[in-house]
Amino acid sequence: MQDEDYMRQLSFGNDSALDTLVFRYHKLLYGYAYRLLQDEKLAEDIVQETFLKIYQQGKKGYVPDQFKPWMYKIATNSCKDYWRKASTQREHVTDKGEERMAEVHSIIDRQVERKWMIESLNQLSFEYRSVLYLRFYQDLKYAEIALTLDIPVNTVKGRMARGLKYLEGILIEDDRKGAGANE
């Protein structure tokens, strides 16, 4: 069955349809939220909030045309809400938190380059970071990203191009700093 069919099942009172959606998307959604927020507990809260909203909409009979972009849109909006609320009181990651994050990335992909890339991505503004994460880590197409973020496809393409350009500058600068430290 397709994801949209499970949403229909929710509207018919089949609550177990949500279990299937959670099984399919929990890990992906958690990874997306974690990459945007860099906080394990907060990412889990966002995932739970997203599935709660999916459940509530399903119970009301709402079935999106495309489930996956709609789901990411809910999660993205929840992340945006967090950033708006926290914009004046952001907490900085402690040294322990950075070590823990490095260990998690090491376990996940065992590549130092991935950690470097994620740290570099996290230097980008939310609008560029979210587009790049959705494209390269969640494997969404431009049209799906546009649906997720509720922006035109051309805006997605523009943010993708500018985001990649900014990311390239960050990576080059980081590489220069690293080379300078080794001299």
Automatic annotation (TrEMBL):
Record GO terms (molecular function): DNA binding; sigma factor activity
Boundaries of every RNA polymerase sigma factor 70 region 4 type domain copy: 116-167
RNA polymerase sigma-70 region domain: residues covered: 22-87
GO biological process: DNA-templated transcription initiation
Pfam annotation, one family: Sigma70_r4_2
Signal peptide: none
CDD domains listed in its UniProt record: Sigma70_r4
Keywords: DNA-binding, Sigma factor, Transcription, Transcription regulation
SUPFAM superfamilies recorded: Sigma2 domain of RNA polymerase sigma factors, Sigma3 and sigma4 domains of RNA polymerase sigma factors
Transmembrane segments: none
Sequence similarity: Belongs to the sigma-70 factor family. ECF subfamily.
Protein name listed in UniProt: RNA polymerase sigma factor
Species name: Paenibacillus contaminans
